[in-house]
């Protein structure tokens, strides 16, 4: 079954752009054009391409588009290195159409330009973070932005966990507001995973630190039947079970917490699976004397840098029959061969699961998945690193909450 906005609590109060009437309206579209720049040129245009379906849809519906984004961290004042002007040029090329670049985001000249836009025309505002009011969620700044908008669309999921003016205060001032296609998919798919999963629901968690993921683990252990753990995080858990971990990365101050998490998982009848062997080295940079451990213990002087072959086999077996799966965090130091084997093997095992909703979220895990060529076997790959994890934690996200229409 297809996930919908109603899979998220209160999601039925949010409208999708497919339900809107935009003819001749000035539509303020908040996107994520936070792209990498080098010498004034965009070096990765993934985020621009990802916004095109929403932009094209709104244009076809006769909207007069005012597009806004942040870029980098200019700290509340103009800084040429973070100007969105190169993005306006590239966007124009992609759309084969003129994009008016406004050198500001507020003020009379921009207001005048917005009123002069014709149906289907596009204007891109200057970096919202040139204004201190953006990050402080300042109401006055939001009021100024609202002067540009007859309707509002948010398609910037990666920013929704932050209470910033363009995603929080601004839509709070408007009734005619919508989720763009990208945001609608994120809310629906992540919403389904955490609030309405098909069962058995299994989580695969890895990455570097327990401390980054405590909230996610705690939310998942009451929802899922199994949590499969890999990555450096596993060593803090193994240490709590008094398994030798050699010189592997361990957060000593989180060992007790890891023990408590395992106790709570047991109470919640959620099985926690930990590696039974490891791919190890005596030094990492460069990797030296790589070999697999005999068992879960790591000898002195060695560090675990990936899950081992027995663990891959075990985890693959344990995944069988899963109907809904959430994956965050690589199983090893996937950036460095051969420590990518665990991550890539699990990606393959997940890709092979029949009749299963498969969702992946998190910066590094998504990067790993995208290089694996297996991404098309996933139901959803989230574009928001931190935002997807906050969503899974079940935290209320300011940018999503303020899209809800107050029933009248
Ligand atoms: P995500 O961005 O998907 O949430 P994290 O940022 O938590 O993932 O973790 C990714 C990082 O964890 C990677 O840089 C990877 O090299 C590192 N990592 C994974 N396993 C290990 C390990 N065994 N030892 C050291 N670092 C590891
Ligand atoms: Mg990361």
Explain the layout of strands and helices.
Blueprint: E1 26-30, E2 37-38, E3 41-42, H1 46-60, E4 64-68, H2 85-95, E5 99-101, H3 108-116, E6 122-124, H4 132-135, H5 139-146, E7 151-154, H6 169-172, E8 177-179, H7 181-195, E9 201-205, H8 210-221, E10 226-229, H9 233-240, H10 255-267, E11 271-273, E12 278-281, E13 291-292, E14 303-307, H11 309-319, E15 324-328, H12 341-352, E16 357-360, H13 363-372, E17 380-381, H14 385-392, H15 398-401
The structure holds adenosine-5'-diphosphate and magnesium ion.
Magnesium ion (MG) binds at residues 363-364.
CATH architecture of the largest domain: 3-Layer(aba) Sandwich
Category from helices, strands and their pairing: alpha/beta
The CATH class of the largest domain: Alpha Beta
Task: List the ligand species.
Answer: adenosine-5'-diphosphate, magnesium ion
Distance between the termini: 31 Å
- What is the chains' assembly state? single chain
Mean pLDDT score? 95
Low-confidence stretches: none
- CA-based shape: elongated
What's the number of extended β-strand segments?
17
Structure in a nutshell:
By secondary structure, this protein is of the alpha/beta class. It has 15 helices and 17 strands. Helix 8 packs parallel to helix 10 (255-267), helix 9 (233-240) crosses helix 10 (255-267) and helix 11 packs parallel to helix 12.
């Amino acid at each position: 079954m297809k996930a919908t906005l109603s899979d998220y609590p209160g999601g039925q109060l949010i409208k999708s752009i497919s339900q809107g009437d935009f003819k001749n309206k000035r539509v303020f579209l908040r996107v994520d054009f936070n792209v990498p720049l080098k010498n004034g040129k965009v070096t990765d245009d993934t985020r621009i391409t990802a916004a095109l379906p929403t932009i094209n849809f709104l244009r076809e519906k006769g909207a007069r588009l005012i597009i806004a984004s942040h870029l980098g961290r200019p700290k509340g004042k103009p800084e040429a290195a973070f100007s969105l002007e190169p993005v306006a040029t590239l966007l124009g090329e992609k759309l084969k159409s003129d994009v008016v670049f406004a050198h500001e985001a507020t003020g009379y000249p921009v207001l005048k330009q917005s009123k002069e836009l014709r149906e289907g025309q596009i204007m891109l505002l200057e970096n919202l973070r040139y204004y201190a009011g953006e990050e402080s969620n300042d109401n006055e700044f939001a009021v100024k932005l609202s002067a540009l908008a007859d309707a509002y669309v948010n398609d910037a999921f990666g920013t929704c966990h932050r209470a910033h003016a363009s995603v929080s205060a601004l839509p709070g001032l408007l009734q005619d507001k919508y989720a763009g296609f990208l945001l609608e998919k994120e809310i629906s798919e992540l919403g389904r995973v955490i609030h309405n999963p098909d069962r058995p629901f299994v989580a695969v968690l890895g990455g570097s630190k327990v401390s980054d993921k405590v909230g996610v683990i705690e939310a998942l252990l009451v929802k899922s039947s199994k949590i499969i753990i890999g990555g450096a995080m596993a060593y803090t858990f193994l240490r709590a079970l008094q398994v030798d971990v050699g010189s592997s990365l361990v957060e000593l101050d989180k060992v007790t917490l890891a023990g408590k998490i395992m106790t709570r998982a047991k109470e919640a009848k959620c099985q926690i699976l930990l590696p039974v062997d490891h791919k190890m080295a005596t030094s990492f940079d460069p990797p030296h004397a790589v070999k697999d451990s005999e068992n879960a213990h790591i000898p002195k002087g060695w560090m675990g840098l990936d899950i081992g072959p027995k663990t891959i086999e075990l985890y693959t077996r344990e995944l069988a029959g899963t109907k809904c799966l959430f994956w965050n965090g690589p199983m090893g130091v996937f950036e460095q061969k051969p420590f990518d084997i665990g991550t890539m093997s699990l990606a393959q095992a997940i890709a092979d699961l029949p009749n299963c909703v498969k969702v992946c979220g998190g910066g590094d895990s998504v990067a790993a998945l995208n290089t694996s060529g297996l991404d098309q076997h996933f139901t959803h790959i989230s574009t928001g690193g931190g935002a997807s994890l906050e969503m899974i934690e079940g935290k209320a996200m300011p940018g999503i909450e303020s899209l809800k229409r107050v029933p009248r």
